[in-house]
Design brief:
Blueprint lengths: L8 H12 L5 H8 L3 H13 L19 E9 L4 H9 L4 E6 L6 E7 L2 H12 L4 E9 L9 H14 L10
Antiparallel strand pairs: 1-3, 1-4, 2-3
Helix pairs in contact: 1-6, 2-3
Length: 173
């Protein structure tokens, strides 16, 4: 696992602005943050190279696209079968994300479907995977917190500034 990158106020301002509008260009970013376009471009490249910015794809709300029945499924799998299960999960369109986990389960999946019947079909398909020994599912009723990263990054930056004894600079703009 790579070391955590220390983010400063400009990095956070760029990430905050991009999180509001991922289509914004470097010129507009430089205007909103009050720094030169070349500085913005260099910072974005540094954030991309470090993997902090992992992409610029749209934030797709699958519920709004007709897949409002969602569930979390914990899979118990055969020992040593994680790569095979990963491959199998990638072949199932309703699996939005999957994580290798600790605890009683081995894999946690977030799945979406257009109906309860379609959800059941996906659950049956998961249970039929050759390396899946058992599954447990819970249906999601509503989302309480959207996927987000800025509060965590801002908290870490404030903690870093506190440890260094420096006052945290205010973001530009």
């Amino acid at each position: 696992m790579p070391a955590r990158m220390t983010l400063d106020a400009l990095d956070l301002a760029l990430l905050r602005t991009l999180s509001l509008d991922a289509r914004i260009g470097p010129l507009q970013l430089s205007r909103q943050t009050g720094v030169a376009r070349a500085t913005v471009t260099a910072r974005l490249q540094r954030l991309e190279d470090a993997g902090v910015i992992a992409g610029y794809q749209p934030d797709i709300d699958v519920a709004a696209a007709g897949f409002g029945v969602q569930a979390f499924v914990t899979l118990e799998i055969a020992q040593g079968a994680i790569e095979a299960v990963q491959h199998d999960l990638e072949s199932i369109p309703g699996v939005l994300e999957a994580y290798s986990t600790t605890g009683s389960g081995d894999v946690l999946c977030w799945i979406a479907a257009s109906s309860h019947e379609a959800l059941q079909d996906t659950l049956v398909r998961l249970n039929r995977l050759s390396d899946v020994a058992r599954s447990t599912s819970v249906v999601a009723l509503s989302r309480l917190v959207r996927r987000r990263a800025l509060p965590l990054l801002e908290s870490a930056a404030a903690a870093d500034a506190g440890r260094s004894g420096m006052r945290r600079p205010e973001p530009p703009g």
